[in-house]
Specification:
By secondary structure, this protein is α+β, with helices and mostly antiparallel strands. Helices cover about 55% and strands about 20% of the residues. The protein has a four-stranded antiparallel sheet with strand order 1-2-4-3, with helices on one face. The protein is globular.
């Protein structure tokens, strides 16, 4: 799975320095204020796009049995950080162990908005289900409908 994800990111990804992304995002949050939810919505669309672009690199039968590994490896390989994933029947829980995004804002719930949106869009698309997210500190719960 890691080889497939690395091939995907090599062919489809863009590499930017983490400090650059943190600074840009931090500045956006200063100006966005209460509108920072727009960042999450945009990131959700990006997560959907990433899942669609990844589709040719993975076997659809792998998704159901390897969702935990796919999500963990994807976010690690994409440079978002280290997440631990638990998959249930009606939810996927991501515990963010480390992410450079946490340096962009003092509140994890705000700092992780791009990761929340990307996870919600990515997971919803690979599973073909509607999603809704909840965030508590560094724990992201993606409810599946």
């Amino acid at each position: 799975m890691t080889e497939k994800l690395n091939e995907f990111l090599k062919n489809e990804g863009v590499i930017l320095p983490k400090d650059f992304v943190v600074e840009v995002y931090s500045q956006i949050l200063k100006f966005a204020g209460g509108l920072s939810g727009l960042i999450q919505a945009g990131s959700k669309k990006a997560g959907v796009s990433a899942a669609k672009a990844l589709a040719p690199y993975i076997n659809p039968s792998e998704v159901a049995t390897n969702l935990k590994e796919i999500v963990e490896k994807f976010f690690e390989a994409a440079g978002f950080g280290d997440v631990e994933v638990d998959v249930g029947d009606n939810s996927v829980v991501l515990r963010v162990k480390d992410s450079f995004l946490l340096n962009a804002h003092k509140k994890p719930e705000t700092a992780l908005r791009p990761l929340v949106g990307a996870a919600e869009g990515f997971i919803g698309e690979v599973l073909g289900r509607k999603t809704k997210s909840k965030v508590d500190g560094t724990t992201i719960t993606i409810e599946l409908r």
